[in-house]
Specification:
about 250 residues; Helicase, Ruva Protein, domain 3; 7-stranded parallel beta sheet
């Protein structure tokens, strides 16, 4: 049997958004390393670097040393083709909700060709609506409904374990079905879409929030390929140009 490819795990990043406690960063790094994950991204951490993070990481301080700190979640996801937010069920923000085993399989398929991400929110407030909107689907851990609050590092451990089990259990994975657009390409498209809809007077530029969230949900459900994003942006540009010509 062909052994699993370690390069696939190297394309799966764990993104911690707005962490409050440095110890949780270290504990998350330790949880990752026990399962063979090495790519840690930190988005606007309250306190980092910190000795408490080093202490909780134990033998995983190398992950902390190479962790990438980003100012925004969009920056952390710019080159990813799939981002899964770990959160309670929020179907009003993102349409698809995956179990941990489903998420592991999806990540391993896409990671064969490009970086992918698991996104964890702040320890107290979780992922904001704006952060969830940057994810293509959600992952929900089926915890005890009477006490479902998991420590951040524990949640990272659960998902990291599921990824490793899936990786060990199936050395070969099918190729992704599409050449998916990256996070940066999608965000550029959404920015263009909002501008174009405002130009066409379809969108109130003063309060674009609800409509844009619904449109993000629509496109997340269908997954956009690079070529499809280019086609859609071409249509938007043509519509804007046509309106400008008529106004002259």
């Amino acid at each position: 049997m062909t052994p699993p490819d370690p390069k696939v795990l190297a394309k799966i990043r764990v993104v911690l958004a707005r962490t409050s406690h440095p110890g949780n960063i270290g504990a998350a790094a330790r949880a990752m390393k026990t399962m063979g994950l090495t790519q840690l991204y930190l988005v606007d951490p309250a306190i980092y670097p910190n000795s408490q993070a080093d202490a909780m990481a134990s033998g995983a301080v190398d992950l902390l040393a190479q962790a990438r700190v980003c100012a925004t979640l969009a920056e952390a996801l710019a080159d990813t083709v799939l981002a899964l937010g770990v959160s309670a069920r929020r179907r009003d923000i993102v349409a698809e909700v995956l179990t941990p085993p489903e998420a592991a399989g999806r990540l391993l398929v896409e990671a064969q060709v490009a970086p992918v991400a698991l996104v964890f929110g702040n320890e107290t407030s979780g992922l904001s609506n704006e952060e969830l909107a940057l994810c293509q689907a959600l992952v929900t851990i089926p915890a005890n409904p009477d006490y479902s609050s998991l420590n951040l590092a524990a949640a990272v451990q659960v998902l990291s374990y599921e990824i490793r089990q899936a990786w060990l259990g199936q050395p070969g994975w099918p190729q992704p079905e599409l050449d998916a657009a990256s996070g940066a390409e999608l965000e550029n498209f959404y920015a263009h879409l909002e501008t174009a809809l405002a130009d066409l007077e379809f969108l109130n530029p003063g309060s674009p929030g609800k409509l844009m969230l619904k449109l993000r949900r629509l496109f997340s459900r269908s997954r956009l390929a690079k070529e499809e994003v280019n086609i859609l942006r071409g249509i938007l540009t043509a519509a804007q140009t046509g309106r400008q010509s008529r106004q002259k």
